[in-house]
Amino acid sequence: MASVRNNSLLAITNYNQRNIEPPKRANGKPLYTSEYFGQNVFTLKEMERTLPKSIFQKFIQQQKGRVSLDRATADAIAHAARVWAMDKGATHFTHWFQPQTDSTAEKHDAFLSLKTSITNGHETITAIDTFSGSQLLQAEPDASSFPNGGMRTTFEARGYTVWDTTSPMFIQEGPHSTAVLYIPCVFISYNGEALDEKTALLRSNEAISHAAVRLLHLIGNTDTKRVITTLGVEQEFFLVDRGLCTLRPDLKICGRTLVGSVPPKHQQLEDHYFGKMPSRVLATISETEIELFKLGVPMKTRHNEVAPGQFEMAPIFEESSLAVDHNLLTMEVLHRVAHRHKLKVLYHEKPFKGVNGSGKHCNWSLSTDTGENILDPSVKPETNPRFLLFFIATIYAVYRHGALLRAAIATSSNEHRLGANEAPPGIISVFLGDQLNEVLNAVEEQREIKNFSQHQIQSVKVGGTILDLKIATLPPISRDLTDRNRTSPFAFTGNKFEFRAVGSKQSPSFPVTLLNVAVCAALNEISNELEKIKGEKTFASLEDVLTVVRIFIKKSKAIRFEGDNYSQEWVEEAARRGIPNITSCPEAFKMLLDPVHQKILTETVPIFTIPEVQSRYHILNEKYVKDLLIEGNTLKGLISQYIIPSAFEYRREIAESLVSLNSIGIDISASPEKAVLVKIGDLTNKITQLKGELEKAIAEVSSTQDIVLAAEKAHHEILKVMDDIRTNVDVLEQIVADKYWSLPKYSELLF
């Protein structure tokens, strides 16, 4: 195996880079990105071009929730979509949905059908291409074969995927010039329960829109008929050589290394962040971007992240449900394109111990139906009633339901990242920055806003202050209203909140859904208070608004923290403030069933039914247990088939060397070889002993019928012994000669 590892390393040096050709005009010149952006999307513009005007208008009304699609309208849309797709090479269509697996699902059906006719007693079979309205609107995947938390059993298999008309159909190009028409869908059970991630997200978007419009109307913004949640998802990931990855069973099966010592140089020089991308990586990301642009995904930035081998891609903001679709598409396309470049993309939150892990920073805001960002503070936020109300509503939502948000980001993989020195801790708090903190303090205390220090000459305003660099050739630098606190799990960053604690492997749906629910409840509570205070007046005055804002500033003050979230001082301070510090997944999952949180999810903002909440609780615990059992069993195999054999082979060579030395009369009683033999023996004995403890823990968890109890046992027993094994194996890796170590090392995977 060690020789296979060496061959894989040699293959990297001989890699022939794949040539990337952007789309071109007939004259051979490259197209501008804007010219091919969305070319594989059945956009509203394309629908308007291909549909009768009356059909198109009915569809627009349906998108606004005013009418249902009748059969004739659905048939017309299906026909237009099929012709458009087949003209682009599509042979199949699929209902594309988001089961509770943090990924997507699809089943391809051909447009081809057979038509039978009988003429003069003779049967004739003709091949035709068809796609009906009923096929567009609905399909039937097996609902018992996806995570369902007990709501579906094996014999209760029927489930439905239903077209989500708010997300456009698109084409994914396949191999050999074929393509598939993708129809974004929700996924529900036979009885209508949500079995997916998207249904709840769409429900939460509707709820928050109603709550936001109600509050806007109370302060006189009666022109707004709808409010949308916007989302920009920063996706972090690692790229490693695929040949080396195939030699690591832990990376292949678990997505992370279960053993492996950090090389002498990793990220301590801080030279990788924003550095020049390796050419192979840049080619991969460039080709990914070309495909994503065709799919209408507005990718904006790409760069090296902090850890070696780690990178990030981020899009322009979009409506949240579409942003989620596009994030999942980004992950799928990057995975596919990386394969072409003989690379493997790793989305696990902590694939390599000792270097930074990956997150999925969800930049969240609210926008009116005319495109105004409600969380834009404007020049004087202290006199902007709309901003103040929605700003404090979000802060109060995190204060009231921070534990619920903690549950939304709890996964076995993210558990390795949260609380480490590159990610927010399990304590959910809000960062605002000095200036907006001062705005809230001044409003609460009913006083003028203080001027800041000498280098902050102006009063608080959204343009920030001017920084004079004392360099004549450089222009004045406008400072933002807030600093950035990368240690905060939930930070205001100018005109949006950044939910930084979401895991890189997660679908953003569930975290954003629970955030929407929490903010929706806060908006309704604030509206109730504002209605009382304004009395008989048509609209609330600025003073009425400030009175209400003061109430909620005082209620939520404990959640605001401007310091270092990594520090032990904050852990102690958070405890004094009564902010929960949830350190494990099983503890976080319980927040879903907490009476306060369950009530908000099922009654206050009825996004879920009680069975749906209980189902999710069961699914989360079950997945956690399965993840740890898979990791434990994988580690057992690594020890037996890779680690111990490598150590024994090296030990045999040393032993043979000692015999040779002894045979020629050299005293071996104090030889360095003997010391190495003893050390290897001690370590292999310890690893073997710990492997037995791991097997015992796995057996105990596997035999525990109560899934909640099994999750707690897995956390306390399997994780602990796995960490102990890793500590000893990593020491052994440093002792065994490199030519005997069969697993690719960090220095090879990361560089």
TrEMBL record:
Pfam families with a match to the protein in the record: Gln-synt_C, Gln-synt_C-ter, GSIII_N
Recorded GO MF terms: glutamine synthetase activity; kinase activity
Keywords: Kinase, Transferase
One GO term of the biological process aspect: glutamine biosynthetic process
PROSITE patterns, alphabetized: GLNA_ATP, GS_BETA_GRASP, GS_CATALYTIC
Keyword Acyltransferase attached: no
Annotated ranges, domain GS beta-grasp: 91-192
Keyword hit for Kinase: yes
Domain GS catalytic: residue ranges: 197-643
Family per similarity comment: Belongs to the glutamine synthetase family.
Protein name (record): Glutamine synthetase/guanido kinase
